[in-house]
Amino acid sequence: MGDSQPRILVTNDDGFESAGLDALVAALDGAGHELLVVCPDTDRSGSGAAIGYVHPDEHVDAVQVRLPRSGHTAHALDGPPALCVFAAVLEAFGPPPDLVVSGVNPGLNTGRSTLHSGTVGAALTAANLGRSGLAVSIDAGDPQRWDTAAELAVEALAWVLDQPERTVVNLNVPNLEPAEVAGFRVAELAPFGIVRAAVTGAAEGRLQFELRGTTDPLPTDSDTAVVRSGHAAFSVLDGVRARPDPSLERWIAERSEPGARAS
Predict the structure, then answer these.
(1) Is the distance from CB of 194 to CB of 214 less than 8 angstroms?
(2) Are residues 233 and 223 in contact, defined by beta-carbon separation less than 8 angstroms?
(3) To 10 degrees, what angle do helices 146-161 and 19-30 make?
(4) Contact status, residue 85 vs residue 128, Cβ threshold 8 Å
(5) How does pLDDT run across 87-122, given as a tens digit for each residue?
(6) How much is the pTM?
Protein backbone atom coordinates (compact mmCIF):
# COMPACT_ATOMS: atom_id res chain seq x y z
CA MET A 1 0.00 0.00 0.00
CA GLY A 2 2.98 2.28 -0.39
CA ASP A 3 5.17 4.01 2.19
CA SER A 4 2.50 6.23 3.77
CA GLN A 5 0.82 5.16 6.99
CA PRO A 6 -2.59 3.61 6.15
CA ARG A 7 -5.69 4.81 7.94
CA ILE A 8 -7.49 1.75 9.34
CA LEU A 9 -11.20 1.56 10.10
CA VAL A 10 -11.95 -0.75 13.02
CA THR A 11 -15.52 -2.01 13.36
CA ASN A 12 -17.44 -5.04 14.60
CA ASP A 13 -20.96 -6.47 14.74
CA ASP A 14 -21.30 -6.73 18.54
CA GLY A 15 -21.46 -3.03 19.38
CA PHE A 16 -19.10 -0.54 20.97
CA GLU A 17 -19.28 -2.20 24.40
CA SER A 18 -17.67 -5.41 23.14
CA ALA A 19 -14.43 -6.39 24.87
CA GLY A 20 -13.26 -7.91 21.59
CA LEU A 21 -13.44 -4.56 19.81
CA ASP A 22 -11.56 -2.83 22.61
CA ALA A 23 -8.81 -5.47 22.63
CA LEU A 24 -8.41 -5.18 18.86
CA VAL A 25 -8.21 -1.39 19.00
CA ALA A 26 -5.64 -1.55 21.81
CA ALA A 27 -3.45 -4.01 19.87
CA LEU A 28 -3.61 -2.06 16.60
CA ASP A 29 -2.97 1.20 18.41
CA GLY A 30 -0.03 -0.36 20.23
CA ALA A 31 1.41 -1.41 16.86
CA GLY A 32 1.41 2.23 15.78
CA HIS A 33 -1.45 2.18 13.30
CA GLU A 34 -3.64 5.22 12.61
CA LEU A 35 -7.16 4.20 13.60
CA LEU A 36 -10.73 5.28 13.01
CA VAL A 37 -13.27 3.35 15.09
CA VAL A 38 -16.86 3.23 13.84
CA CYS A 39 -19.13 0.46 15.09
CA PRO A 40 -22.79 -0.36 15.77
CA ASP A 41 -24.36 1.15 18.88
CA THR A 42 -25.89 -2.25 19.77
CA ASP A 43 -25.33 -5.90 18.92
CA ARG A 44 -25.94 -6.43 15.16
CA SER A 45 -24.70 -10.02 14.91
CA GLY A 46 -25.85 -12.00 11.88
CA SER A 47 -26.41 -8.91 9.75
CA GLY A 48 -24.06 -10.01 6.97
CA ALA A 49 -23.34 -7.13 4.60
CA ALA A 50 -26.74 -5.49 5.12
CA ILE A 51 -26.77 -1.70 5.46
CA GLY A 52 -29.94 -1.73 7.55
CA TYR A 53 -32.63 0.89 8.05
CA VAL A 54 -32.18 4.57 7.25
CA HIS A 55 -34.80 6.98 8.62
CA PRO A 56 -37.30 8.47 6.13
CA ASP A 57 -35.50 11.81 6.30
CA GLU A 58 -32.31 9.90 5.34
CA HIS A 59 -30.46 10.37 8.64
CA VAL A 60 -28.66 7.81 10.83
CA ASP A 61 -28.03 8.46 14.52
CA ALA A 62 -24.37 8.50 15.57
CA VAL A 63 -22.73 9.41 18.88
CA GLN A 64 -19.16 9.58 20.14
CA VAL A 65 -18.17 7.17 22.91
CA ARG A 66 -14.90 6.23 24.60
CA LEU A 67 -13.70 2.63 24.77
CA PRO A 68 -12.85 1.70 28.39
CA ARG A 69 -9.62 -0.28 27.89
CA SER A 70 -7.89 1.45 25.01
CA GLY A 71 -9.32 4.89 25.81
CA HIS A 72 -9.84 5.38 22.08
CA THR A 73 -12.72 7.49 20.80
CA ALA A 74 -15.29 5.56 18.78
CA HIS A 75 -18.34 6.55 16.76
CA ALA A 76 -21.37 4.42 17.64
CA LEU A 77 -23.74 4.22 14.68
CA ASP A 78 -27.39 3.16 14.63
CA GLY A 79 -26.80 0.54 11.98
CA PRO A 80 -24.97 -2.69 11.11
CA PRO A 81 -21.22 -2.88 10.44
CA ALA A 82 -21.56 -2.59 6.66
CA LEU A 83 -23.23 0.79 7.15
CA CYS A 84 -20.35 1.81 9.41
CA VAL A 85 -17.96 1.01 6.56
CA PHE A 86 -20.04 2.98 4.07
CA ALA A 87 -20.23 6.00 6.38
CA ALA A 88 -16.48 5.99 7.00
CA VAL A 89 -15.61 5.64 3.31
CA LEU A 90 -18.02 8.51 2.53
CA GLU A 91 -15.92 10.67 4.90
CA ALA A 92 -18.53 11.04 7.63
CA PHE A 93 -15.74 10.94 10.24
CA GLY A 94 -12.86 12.65 8.49
CA PRO A 95 -10.49 11.24 5.86
CA PRO A 96 -11.69 7.88 4.52
CA PRO A 97 -9.97 4.68 5.65
CA ASP A 98 -7.57 2.75 3.46
CA LEU A 99 -8.44 -0.62 4.98
CA VAL A 100 -11.01 -2.23 7.31
CA VAL A 101 -10.39 -4.54 10.27
CA SER A 102 -13.50 -6.10 11.82
CA GLY A 103 -13.80 -7.92 15.17
CA VAL A 104 -12.88 -9.51 17.43
CA ASN A 105 -16.03 -11.61 17.23
CA PRO A 106 -16.81 -13.97 20.14
CA GLY A 107 -17.36 -17.29 18.38
CA LEU A 108 -16.00 -18.63 15.11
CA ASN A 109 -17.16 -17.41 11.72
CA THR A 110 -16.29 -20.48 9.69
CA GLY A 111 -17.77 -22.46 6.85
CA ARG A 112 -20.41 -21.22 4.47
CA SER A 113 -22.19 -19.45 7.31
CA THR A 114 -19.61 -16.67 6.95
CA LEU A 115 -22.09 -15.29 4.39
CA HIS A 116 -24.35 -14.27 7.28
CA SER A 117 -21.67 -12.87 9.60
CA GLY A 118 -21.71 -9.13 10.24
CA THR A 119 -18.01 -9.36 11.13
CA VAL A 120 -17.17 -10.83 7.73
CA GLY A 121 -19.81 -8.63 6.05
CA ALA A 122 -17.84 -5.53 7.03
CA ALA A 123 -14.70 -6.91 5.37
CA LEU A 124 -16.62 -7.84 2.22
CA THR A 125 -18.17 -4.38 2.13
CA ALA A 126 -14.68 -2.91 2.30
CA ALA A 127 -13.76 -4.84 -0.86
CA ASN A 128 -16.94 -3.66 -2.56
CA LEU A 129 -15.77 -0.10 -1.87
CA GLY A 130 -12.23 -0.64 -3.13
CA ARG A 131 -10.54 -1.44 0.19
CA SER A 132 -9.09 -4.57 1.69
CA GLY A 133 -10.66 -6.12 4.77
CA LEU A 134 -9.64 -8.37 7.64
CA ALA A 135 -12.33 -10.12 9.72
CA VAL A 136 -11.21 -11.58 13.06
CA SER A 137 -13.07 -14.11 15.24
CA ILE A 138 -12.11 -16.28 18.19
CA ASP A 139 -13.52 -19.60 19.32
CA ALA A 140 -15.93 -19.38 22.26
CA GLY A 141 -14.54 -20.06 25.70
CA ASP A 142 -14.38 -18.96 29.31
CA PRO A 143 -12.31 -16.97 29.83
CA GLN A 144 -12.34 -15.44 26.36
CA ARG A 145 -8.74 -14.78 25.32
CA TRP A 146 -9.28 -11.60 23.35
CA ASP A 147 -5.60 -10.65 23.39
CA THR A 148 -4.66 -13.79 21.47
CA ALA A 149 -6.94 -12.89 18.58
CA ALA A 150 -5.89 -9.23 18.69
CA GLU A 151 -2.20 -10.14 18.63
CA LEU A 152 -2.63 -12.50 15.66
CA ALA A 153 -4.76 -9.89 13.88
CA VAL A 154 -1.83 -7.45 14.02
CA GLU A 155 0.40 -10.13 12.47
CA ALA A 156 -2.14 -10.99 9.76
CA LEU A 157 -2.64 -7.33 8.96
CA ALA A 158 1.03 -7.04 7.97
CA TRP A 159 0.36 -9.56 5.18
CA VAL A 160 -2.89 -7.91 4.10
CA LEU A 161 -1.18 -4.51 3.78
CA ASP A 162 1.19 -5.97 1.18
CA GLN A 163 -1.62 -7.40 -0.96
CA PRO A 164 -3.61 -5.78 -3.79
CA GLU A 165 -6.65 -3.69 -2.97
CA ARG A 166 -9.90 -5.60 -2.34
CA THR A 167 -8.12 -8.49 -0.60
CA VAL A 168 -10.42 -10.00 2.05
CA VAL A 169 -9.11 -12.28 4.80
CA ASN A 170 -11.21 -14.23 7.31
CA LEU A 171 -9.11 -15.07 10.39
CA ASN A 172 -10.42 -17.54 12.98
CA VAL A 173 -8.39 -18.07 16.13
CA PRO A 174 -8.50 -20.83 18.77
CA ASN A 175 -9.31 -19.68 22.29
CA LEU A 176 -5.81 -20.34 23.64
CA GLU A 177 -2.98 -18.36 25.15
CA PRO A 178 -0.77 -16.82 22.42
CA ALA A 179 2.11 -19.23 23.08
CA GLU A 180 -0.27 -22.20 22.74
CA VAL A 181 -1.44 -21.33 19.22
CA ALA A 182 0.37 -23.59 16.75
CA GLY A 183 0.63 -20.84 14.12
CA PHE A 184 -1.28 -19.84 11.00
CA ARG A 185 -2.65 -22.29 8.45
CA VAL A 186 -4.32 -21.56 5.13
CA ALA A 187 -7.85 -22.95 5.30
CA GLU A 188 -10.74 -23.64 2.98
CA LEU A 189 -14.31 -22.87 4.06
CA ALA A 190 -15.92 -25.80 5.82
CA PRO A 191 -19.06 -27.21 4.15
CA PHE A 192 -21.02 -26.00 7.20
CA GLY A 193 -20.47 -23.85 10.27
CA ILE A 194 -19.96 -24.83 13.90
CA VAL A 195 -23.71 -24.74 14.48
CA ARG A 196 -26.78 -25.44 12.37
CA ALA A 197 -30.17 -23.82 12.68
CA ALA A 198 -33.31 -25.86 13.23
CA VAL A 199 -36.97 -24.90 13.58
CA THR A 200 -38.13 -26.59 16.78
CA GLY A 201 -41.66 -25.24 16.91
CA ALA A 202 -44.23 -23.38 14.85
CA ALA A 203 -47.38 -21.72 16.15
CA GLU A 204 -49.63 -18.92 15.02
CA GLY A 205 -47.42 -15.87 14.50
CA ARG A 206 -44.32 -17.50 16.00
CA LEU A 207 -41.40 -19.70 14.93
CA GLN A 208 -39.01 -21.22 17.44
CA PHE A 209 -35.41 -21.53 16.23
CA GLU A 210 -32.56 -23.43 17.85
CA LEU A 211 -28.84 -23.45 17.07
CA ARG A 212 -27.36 -26.92 17.44
CA GLY A 213 -23.69 -27.86 17.50
CA THR A 214 -22.49 -30.12 14.71
CA THR A 215 -20.53 -33.34 15.12
CA ASP A 216 -20.19 -34.27 11.44
CA PRO A 217 -16.59 -34.95 10.31
CA LEU A 218 -14.88 -32.08 8.53
CA PRO A 219 -12.10 -31.93 5.91
CA THR A 220 -8.79 -31.44 7.69
CA ASP A 221 -8.00 -28.35 5.60
CA SER A 222 -11.31 -26.65 6.45
CA ASP A 223 -11.32 -23.56 8.64
CA THR A 224 -13.27 -25.18 11.49
CA ALA A 225 -10.94 -28.21 11.58
CA VAL A 226 -7.86 -26.00 11.41
CA VAL A 227 -8.97 -24.06 14.49
CA ARG A 228 -9.77 -27.29 16.29
CA SER A 229 -6.18 -28.42 15.61
CA GLY A 230 -4.88 -25.40 17.53
CA HIS A 231 -3.96 -23.25 14.53
CA ALA A 232 -5.32 -19.90 13.43
CA ALA A 233 -7.30 -20.44 10.20
CA PHE A 234 -6.33 -17.94 7.49
CA SER A 235 -8.83 -17.84 4.60
CA VAL A 236 -8.79 -15.45 1.64
CA LEU A 237 -12.35 -14.81 0.44
CA ASP A 238 -13.43 -13.98 -3.11
CA GLY A 239 -16.78 -12.45 -2.13
CA VAL A 240 -19.62 -12.13 -4.61
CA ARG A 241 -18.66 -12.85 -8.19
CA ALA A 242 -20.35 -14.00 -11.39
CA ARG A 243 -19.02 -17.00 -13.29
CA PRO A 244 -19.22 -17.77 -17.01
CA ASP A 245 -21.50 -20.65 -17.96
CA PRO A 246 -21.46 -22.04 -21.53
CA SER A 247 -24.88 -23.65 -21.12
CA LEU A 248 -26.38 -20.29 -20.17
CA GLU A 249 -24.73 -18.64 -23.19
CA ARG A 250 -26.30 -21.29 -25.45
CA TRP A 251 -29.71 -20.84 -23.79
CA ILE A 252 -29.63 -17.07 -24.36
CA ALA A 253 -28.46 -17.52 -27.97
CA GLU A 254 -31.30 -19.95 -28.66
CA ARG A 255 -33.86 -17.53 -27.26
CA SER A 256 -32.41 -14.76 -29.41
CA GLU A 257 -33.20 -16.57 -32.64
CA PRO A 258 -36.16 -15.13 -34.63
CA GLY A 259 -39.44 -16.50 -33.34
CA ALA A 260 -37.84 -18.46 -30.48
CA ARG A 261 -39.64 -16.63 -27.64
CA ALA A 262 -42.99 -16.67 -29.44
CA SER A 263 -42.99 -20.42 -29.92
Answers:
(1) yes
(2) yes
(3) 50
(4) no
(5) 999 999 999 999 999 999 999 999 988 999 999 999
(6) 0.89
